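Researcher: Batch entry, complex prediction.
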Amino acid sequence: MSTEKSFAKGSAAPGPVPDGKIRLYSMRFCPFAQRTRLVLAAKGIKHETMNINLKDKPEWFLEKNPLGLVPTLENPSGEVVYDSPITCEYLEEVYPEKKLLPPSPFGKAQQKMMLEHFSKVVPYFYKIPMGRKNGEDVSALEGELKEKFAKLNEDLVNKKTGFFGGNSITMIDYMMWPWFERLELMELKHCLGGTPELKKWTERMTEDAAVKACMHSAETYKAFYKSYQEGKPDYDYGL
Amino acid sequence: MSTEKSFAKGSAAPGPVPDGKIRLYSMRFCPFAQRTRLVLAAKGIKHETMNINLKDKPEWFLEKNPLGLVPTLENPSGEVVYDSPITCEYLEEVYPEKKLLPPSPFGKAQQKMMLEHFSKVVPYFYKIPMGRKNGEDVSALEGELKEKFAKLNEDLVNKKTGFFGGNSITMIDYMMWPWFERLELMELKHCLGGTPELKKWTERMTEDAAVKACMHSAETYKAFYKSYQEGKPDYDYGL
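Model: C-alpha cells for the complex:
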C-alpha cells in the first residue's frame, strides 16, 4: 500500500483499513479528489491513499463504490463515503481538530451557497479547452468565465477579507482551489486579468502548507494533461 | 402577510421577520420549496410564508436573493439562505427539536449520497412530460426512470426498512417526496408498477402529518399544472 502507483482491473483487493486511519481512493491529478486531499492535509488526518486507474478500474473498487468515482473514503469499519463535498464534510465532522467550517449554521449555509455558485463555474474549465481543441471560437465562453471571476472578485472586495470565508483559509477556499491551480495548464490565466483581488487570493493560496503539499509541478501537470488529451492518461507519470 | 397570494413586481417590500419566527419565500406548487415546507412542518417551526410570483418577481425579492429562486429563508437578523437542501440542513441545525438527520457523520453522509443519487432522477419528471407534450416517443426515458425506481426499490428491500433512512421518516424521505406526490399529475404512476416496495413507501408517506399538511388536492395540482403548461401559471389558483 506504500505505492502511489495506480491500481487497475485485475489487481488484488486491499485488506481492511488499519485502525486509526482512513483510506482515500484517489487519482493523483483529479481536481475533485484534490479537494479531499487538501482537507486531509489541512486537518493533519492520518490516512493512506490508493490511486485508481480510472480508465481500467479494479473490480474490487467498483464493489466499494458502484459509481467508480474518486474521491472515495473508506474507514476501518468498511463504511464508504464518496462525492467530493460529502467526503470533505464527513472529514470535518469526524475529525474536529482544526475546524474548516464556521461554527454557526448561517456560516455553514453561506459556505454551501458559495460552493453551489462555484459548481456553475467548474464546467468552463472543461468546455473552453475542449472547444479550443475542436478549433471552435471560445471567446464567448471566456467572456462568461471572466464574468464569473468578476463576481468572485466582487465578493472578496465586499467582504474585505483575504479568503472567501474570512481572513484565514476555510473549507470553501479548498473546495475552489484545484481549478485555479490548473489555470495556467488550461491556458486560462489571462481570464484573471481584470480581477486583482481574486488574483491576490490565488497568490495567498499558494502559500498555504496544505495547498503546497497537494500540488504537482507545472511540468508534471502538463505531461499528464497531454497524455489525457491524447486519450491515454498516464496516471503514474513521474513516479 | 396573512395571505397566501403571491407577491409580484411592484409589490411593497415586507418588513423585517418578526422575532422568534423564520420566513419562507415560496411558491405553492414548487416541489423544491415543498422540501423546505415539509421540514418546517415536520419540525413544527414557527414561520411565516410569502409566496412569490415567479413569472414577475418583486424587485425586493431579487435584492434578497439575486438568483430569484424559491425556497429562500430569511431570519429576524436578515440572514438569507437559499437552495432547497441548504435551507433544510440550515433548519435542522438551527432547530434541534425533532431531528431529521441521523446523529452519526456516516449516517449524515449516507443521506447526502442518497440525495445526490436522487438529483439524477429529478430531471425525468420534467423531460418525460415535456417530451410527451412535443409529441416525442418517451418510452426510452420511461424505461430509464423505471430503472432508477428499481434501484430505489432495491435499496428499501436491502435495508428492510419502511423508509430510506430507517423505520421512521427522516430528511431524505422528505427530500424525495415532492416528485412522488406529482406522479399521477405527470402521468408517471405506471412507472411504479414493477417496484412494490417503493410503491408501499409512497403509501406510507401519505400517512405522515407533515406530508398531509403540505399537500394540495389532485384537482388543484391539475388546474395549476394546466395553467403552467399554457405558459400562464396561476400561482393563486384555489385561493
